[in-house]
Structures are given as structure tokens and as C-alpha cells.
Inverse folding.
């Protein structure tokens, strides 16, 4: 745990932090509003005593109640991994500013989060599906995605015709599958 | 969104080849020539463009053409489709199409219990699957505060570094193969086969090892593994130099790899590239040193870096890393303590609700796992960060301006493995 990093983050990001900074083992975690993402990431990247230059990961999370976008950052100024959680995106219309203005490489990571969770990253110029076919309508990593093969419902329209299944199966919704929710923490 | 203005093909006029005499009209297995629409060979997707970038890419300029490379192409290292926009023989733009190997491993892991996750992540990077297991167990051990016995950590490092050598050796062979040299791959496979047989003696499997466990490893070192390892170590350094010499002193290889696909330092950082590709651009970021895990702080090894950032530098970094890995294996054999290789854990793991991020340095870069527990016996969220995914992302920036013949040299020098990229 890097106590010093906690002090620096509190000094730099006082206005944007939502909730306390949590530290456990070699990780430091902060929570912010989705709207503050560009400002916070810019500060973390540019401030001389922070310099988080390496974007280790960008991931979407569906807690069952709302969506999150989670950034993992690394800096040579701290021995800790920094986790930035943009919390409280609505599940019906999740929107978050893009991080591509700072890390071009976030483009595909955001495409993946869009593909899997439906999170719309405003400012990403290439936000289309990356793994699933372009006509696919579900978001597979959401907690209300039914496992009995949703993919069979896709007609494959838009897929090149050699790869298309000829008769799309009709799968009835499974009423037993409920939404799994994370405990509020 | 602007409508697409041009389409590429006029394949409707392709001449009808005579059907073989044995083909019956109503045999469903035979696709008659008139049924093959022009779409089959058309790189342009048969739907309206969805984004600004896609519209820009699929608008054909004067004298430009589209070319599909893949998904089944021997030099794409799996099933990757690159749509190239060409002007003559020069690449103007690239649109990589992914997803041909997508299996939804993250979703599968979220529906498996903690022990089963480890064999689910094995086939992701099938060339170096121990590292994927390592990232998963590291995250889980942090989640559960498990103390791993010292001997298990040393065995993890030992087997991991062996696999790193195997993976790097294979990379060198495939890079040469993509540049037209057939010989190095044969020597690479000799090396790889010895290492794989060695690990088979240790783990019981040749490729998908399923060896690491939460809290240790599956079994202690055995006699066959150690005797094979000793045999191999007696000539590993010499053999590495011989294999490297085959390429380092090959003028055709060096002249084709030097100066192509230059990834500058700033660009590498902006793209989030990690591993050898980042170190070849002059950034000494290696998770083993930048954020040490396991017993790496106790080991003596260097992090080689280069400044050129071209395909040749990326190749030479791998050669240097093989030398460092041999050093590490030597230290493991000398310093390994005695003791148990597994911590005592319950049969069913139910970690307290929490979050953990574990990252290890794989042969292609930083492999990360972000695991969330909700207190049940399955991970609530299991996020896998694969380095090849981000490394491949630089392709649209590296290829433009290069010749068609160099595209495969550049893609291959980034060392992507599609199993990990597509998840």
C-alpha cells in the first residue's frame, strides 16, 4: 500500500473523488463520476507527481444495478496499481466519455466494452462491434444475458454468406434465469 | 453517416467454370457456380457502414483497391482477417477484422467455479498457456489472501521461463518463415519440442498444461523433468546462439526487417503496447521489474531495451530475453528451497466480496486479470487483458506506406496470437 500516493491523489483530485480512496495489498482504488473521466485521466497522466502513463486495462463491468468502466493504470512514481472506477452508468443507456484522446489504444478496448456491455463511449470514432457479428443485438457479458444460446437467435444478416447459418433457431426465453447482482460495496 | 459511394467489385461477370461431370444438380453439398455471389470474395461488408472511421475506410479513392488477407492465411497466425486498401503495391489503410475465434471465455469463467477458471483460460494463448494461468491464480490469490509456499513460487518461475523461451524461439522461426526463410522454423521446433516434452513430464500435458493452482502448483518437480532439463541446459545457451546466428547474420532477413514498421516511443505508450514490442521502442517496462510478483525481486536479470522500434529490434529483443531467461532458470535450479508446493485450501472457494487485479509478464507483454467476487463460488466478473490484442491494434498505424510484401513481416514481428486476442 502506497500511503503517499493516497495523499497525492487526495490533493490533486479532491473535487472529483466520490467516496474514500481504498487501498488493499498493492492496489489503490478511486471512484469517480463518468462525466469526470477526461479531467481525471488527464490529471493522472500529466501531473508531475503522478504520471500514470501506461493504461494497463480498460474494462466494462455490469454490477446488476448499474454499469461501471474500470481503468487500471501504472506509473513509475508509485509501486501500486491504480484502479479508477467510473461508477453509476445507467443500465438502460450507459454512456461514458472516451479515453482515446489520451490513449489511442483505448479505441479497441472501448470497442470491446461496447460489444460486450453496450457501453457507448462518446468520442470514440470507431465504436462498432469487434468480436460479435455486426447484426448482433445482445450484449453477452451483461448479467441479464441468457446463456441458453442467445447466439442462435442471430439471423447472421450482415455476416458474409459463407459464414451464415441457414435457419436461425428460435430460442424461448428462459424465465428461470434471473439477474445476478453484486452486493453494494 | 455518409453513404458508401463506391463498391469494389464487378465479380458478377466472372466466367462460369465448367462443372465436373459427376456433380449432380440436386446434391446439396455442391455449390453451383451461379450460387456463388460476388459477395463471397468481396472485402466490403454487405451492410451500411456504422461509424465514421468505417465509412472513411470503405470509401475507395482514385486508383485504390481492397484486398482481403485471411481469415485463413498461413501468415496471419490464426484466423485474422486484414482488409487492406492498396494503391498499386502500397498499403494505404488497414481494417483488421477480429472475432473468428471468439469463444466468450470471460462469460464461461463467470459461470465456472474458481478452480475451473484455470483450465478455461488455458487455451487463450495456446503458445504460452502457463502465463494465462499465472495471471488468473495471481488475481485469485490476492482476492483470497492466500499465502503461496516458496517452493511453488520458484517452480512457477522455472516453468514460466522455460515456456517463455519456447514461445520466443517459435516467434523467431515464424518471423523468418513469413519473410521467406524456411530453415529457422525447423530449428525452432526442435527447441520447442524439447521444452514441451520437459513440461509434459512435469505437468502431464504438452500444450494446455492446467498446472498452476490457487495456492501453489499441481505437483512437485520429478526426476524425468529434472533430467531432461539438465540435459537441455547443458547446451541451451550454445543452441540459442546458433539459432540466432542463423538469422542475425542472414543479410536478406536483416535488410527486410530493418526499418520496417517503426513504432516510436510516444506511439507505443499512447497505444498501450506492452512486452517486447514496447521495450524495442525504448521503454524499459517489464512487469517482472516494474511491479514485481512471485520471486522475481530475488532474481538477477536484465531488462533489455532497444531504441529503433522496428521489426528487427523487436526480433533482437526476443533473442536477448531468451538469454536472460536461461540465466533465470539457472538461478532457479541453484536457489530452489525445499518444502510443500500447495497451500491448504478448502475444496470449495468462496472468497469475501472484493476486487483484485493481477498482472504478469507473458512472452507477448502484460497479461492481466481483473476479478470481482460477490461472495459466491464463481467469480462475479472475470476480465482478461491480453497483450496481443493491444499490440495488434498498432497494425493500422504501422502498415500504411509499406509494401504489401512487408505487411506480414510487420504483423508477425508484433507476435500476435489470435487465441488470446479473440478470447
Amino acid at each position: 500500500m502506497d500511503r503517499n500516493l493516497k495523499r497525492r491523489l487526495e490533493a490533486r483530485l479532491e473535487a472529483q473523488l466520490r467516496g474514500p480512496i481504498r487501498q488493499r495489498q498493492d492496489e489503490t482504488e478511486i471512484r469517480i463520476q463518468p462525466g469526470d473521466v477526461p479531467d481525471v485521466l488527464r490529471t493522472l497522466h500529466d501531473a508531475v507527481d503522478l504520471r500514470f502513463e501506461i493504461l494497463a486495462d480498460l474494462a466494462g463491468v455490469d454490477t446488476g444495478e448499474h454499469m461501471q468502466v474500470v481503468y487500471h493504470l501504472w506509473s513509475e512514481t508509485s509501486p501500486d496499481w491504480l484502479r479508477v472506477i467510473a461508477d453509476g452508468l445507467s443500465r438502460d443507456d450507459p454512456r461514458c466519455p472516451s479515453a482515446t484522446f489520451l490513449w489511442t489504444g483505448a479505441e479497441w478496448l472501448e470497442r470491446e466494452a461496447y460489444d460486450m456491455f453496450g457501453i457507448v463511449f462518446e468520442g470514440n470514432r470507431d465504436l462498432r462491434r469487434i468480436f460479435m457479428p455486426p447484426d448482433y443485438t445482445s450484449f453477452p457479458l451483461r448479467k441479464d444475458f441468457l446463456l441458453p444460446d442467445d447466439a442462435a437467435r442471430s439471423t447472421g444478416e450482415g455476416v458474409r454468406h459463407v459464414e451464415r447459418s441457414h435457419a436461425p433457431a428460435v430460442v424461448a426465453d428462459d424465465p428461470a434465469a434471473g439477474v445476478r447482482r453484486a452486493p453494494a460495496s | 453517416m455518409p453513404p458508401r459511394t463506391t463498391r469494389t467489385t464487378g465479380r458478377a461477370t466472372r466466367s462460369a467454370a465448367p462443372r465436373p461431370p459427376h456433380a449432380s444438380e440436386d446434391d446439396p453439398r455442391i455449390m453451383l457456380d451461379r450460387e456463388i455471389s460476388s459477395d463471397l470474395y468481396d472485402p466490403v461488408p454487405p451492410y451500411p457502414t456504422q461509424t465514421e472511421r468505417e465509412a472513411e475506410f470503405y470509401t475507395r479513392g482514385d486508383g485504390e483497391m481492397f484486398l482481403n488477407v485471411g481469415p485463413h492465411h498461413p501468415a496471419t497466425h490464426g484466423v485474422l482477417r486484414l482488409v487492406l486498401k492498396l494503391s498499386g503495391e502500397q498499403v494505404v489503410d488497414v481494417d483488421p477484422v477480429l472475432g473468428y475465434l471468439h469463444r466468450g471465455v470471460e462469460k464461461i469463467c463467470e459461470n465456472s467455479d474458481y478452480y475451473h477458471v484455470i483450465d478455461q483460460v488455458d487455451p487463450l494463448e495456446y503458445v504460452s498457456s502457463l502465463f494465462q494461468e499465472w495471471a488468473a491464480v495471481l488475481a485469485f490469490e490476492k482476492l483470497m489472501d492466500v499465502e503461496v509456499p516458496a517452493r511453488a513460487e520458484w517452480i512457477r518461475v522455472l516453468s514460466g521461463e522455460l515456456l517463455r523461451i519456447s514461445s520466443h524461439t517459435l516467434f523467431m522461426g515464424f518471423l523468418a518463415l513469413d519473410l521467406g526463410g524456411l530453415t529457422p522454423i525447423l530449428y525452432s521446433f526442435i527447441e520447442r519440442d524439447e521444452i514441451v516434452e520437459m513440461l509434459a513430464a512435469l505437468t502431464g500435458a504438452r500444450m494446455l498444461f492446467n498446472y498452476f493452482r490457487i495456492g501453489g502448483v499441481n505437483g512437485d518437480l520429478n526426476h524425468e523433468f529434472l533430467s531432461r532439463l539438465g540435459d537441455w541446459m547443458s547446451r541451451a545457451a550454445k543452441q540459442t546462439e546458433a539459432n540466432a546466428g542463423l538469422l542475425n547474420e542472414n543479410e536478406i532477413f536483416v535488410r527486410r526487417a530493418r526499418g520496417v514498421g517503426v513504432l516510436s516511443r510516444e506511439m507505443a505508450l499512447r497505444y498501450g503496447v506492452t512486452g517486447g514490442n514496447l521495450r524495442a521502442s525504448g521503454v524499459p517496462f517489464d512487469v517482472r521489474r516494474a511491479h514485481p510478483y512471485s520471486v522475481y525481486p530475488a532474481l538477477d536479470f536484465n531488462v533489455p531495451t532497444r531504441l529503433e522500434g522496428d521489426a528487427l529490434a523487436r526480433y533482437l529483443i526476443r533473442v536477448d530475453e531468451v538469454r536472460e531467461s536461461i540465466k533465470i532458470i539457472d538461478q532457479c535450479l541453484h536457489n530452489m528451497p525445499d518444502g510443500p508446493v500447495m497451500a491448504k485450501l478448502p475444496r470449495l472457494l468462496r472468497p469475501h466480496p472484493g476486487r483484485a487485479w493481477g498482472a504478469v509478464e507473458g512472452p507477448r507483454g502484460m497479461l492481466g486479470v481483473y476479478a470481482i467476487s460477490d461472495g459466491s463460488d464463481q467469480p462475479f466478473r472475470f476480465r482478461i487483458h491480453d497483450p496481443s490484442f493491444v499490440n495488434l491494434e498498432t497494425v493500422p498505424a504501422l502498415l500504411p506506406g509499406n509494401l504489401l510484401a512487408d505487411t506480414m513481416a510487420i504483423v508477425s514481428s508484433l507476435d500476435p496470437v489470435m487465441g488470446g486476442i479473440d478470447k
